[in-house]
């Protein structure tokens, strides 16, 4: 399983549902503002369960984007040590989006979510109904832009990975069938073309 770093902008988001990050493939860093003096019990308890896979970073100094620069610095350091990891920034601050675009251009896997529950890998792991699963797959494919899988085999493998290889062959084929039925994909022989919703 790919290593996932979750970097939380605690000035901007006080996350809930942190317990979903206890899996071994998650490392969590909570960035706390210079003037913040408290974190919630739920956050502290969840991070304690992670042991050495979690840490707090209290930023030094104040400024308009002081915490954002700290997150960018840590991603740079971590990406040099773990080039295959995925970096999830949890923040409502759209100012991170240009950084994420730059990281992607350097082939560093990254994304921004407004909450822990919105992190794609978390959303996939917690989606149980067929409609939830299809929504997760469509969102993942939309994020891929022009890098979508072009064959049935690679699309199946991609969907399997999204759901942490927890789905049966029947569930995988059901998702592909539903995507085709909804007009999101067209399968011709072994090739796949897309018509995803906006």
What are its keywords?
single chain, about 200 residues, alpha/beta, 5-stranded parallel β-sheet, 7 strands, elongated
Kindly describe this structure.
By secondary structure, the protein is of the alpha/beta class. Helix content is 40%, strand content 18%. The protein has 7 helices and 7 strands; from the N terminus they run E-E-H-E-H-E-H-E-H-H-H-H-E-E. It has helices at residues 41-50, 66-81, 97-105, 120-126, 130-143, 152-162, 169-181, and strands at residues 4-9, 26-32, 54-58, 86-90, 109-113, 185-188, 191-194. The strands form 2 sheets. The chain has a 5-stranded parallel sheet, with helices on both faces. Strands 6-7 form a two-stranded antiparallel sheet. Helix 5 (130-143) packs across helix 7 and helix 6 (152-162) packs across helix 7. The two termini are 30 Å apart. The model has no long low-confidence stretch (mean pLDDT 89).
The largest beta-sheet arranges its strands as: 3-2-1-4-5
Order of helices and strands: EEHEHEHEHHHHEE
The helix count comes to 7
Low-confidence runs of at least 5 consecutive residues: none
Percent of residues in beta strands? 15-25%
Oligomer designation: single chain
Q: Describe the biggest sheet? A: 5 strands, parallel
The helix-and-strand class reads alpha/beta
Q: What is the residue-averaged pLDDT?
A: 89
Strands, total number: 7
> How much helix is in the residues?
40-55%
Task: Measure the end-to-end span.
Answer: 30 Å
Rg computed from alpha carbons, rounded to a whole number of angstroms:
18 Å
Shape: elongated
